[in-house]
Amino acid sequence: RSRGLGDVYKRQLNALSAYARDGLRKKKVKIIESTTPIIPLYTYTVENTLTAARQLYDAGVYVNPVLPPATPPAECLLRTSYMATLTEPLIDEAVEIIGGVLGEKV
């Protein structure tokens, strides 16, 4: 039985998400463990979250800040999302930037 293109993209997306999680862990970024293409990053406070989101955006990495009431006040986070069309070099670049910003802030 032949596999559809959707299966190929799903496998690629799972592999790239795992690659990103591994890279973030190596940079000592505190992540919320999951097996999805959404990797939340702990930033804890509203101020840390908004500051880090802006610094990442200015450096070329877009993330979604998640703030109260969507999270408890001390559990704010940045939501990163991945696509099957990304490449490992692009993920490496983003992980390097994220590691630099969050290493200074959290």
Topology:
Blueprint: H1 5-26, E1 38-44, H2 46-58, E2 64-66, E3 76-81, H3 88-105
Antiparallel strand pairs: 1-3, 2-3
What does this structure look like?
- This protein is α+β, with helices and mostly antiparallel strands.
- The chain is built from three helices and three strands, in the order αβαββα.
- A three-stranded antiparallel β-sheet has the order 1-3-2.
- Helix 1 runs parallel beside helix 3.
Poorly predicted ranges: none
* Strand residue percentage: 15-25%
List how many beta strands DSSP finds.
3
Q: Could you give the distance between the termini?
A: 49 Å
What key attributes describe this structure?
106 residues, 50% helix, 3 strands, alpha+beta, globular, 3-stranded antiparallel sheet
Précis, in short:
With 106 residues, this protein is α+β, with helices and mostly antiparallel strands. The chain is built from 3 helices and 3 strands, in the order H-E-H-E-E-H.
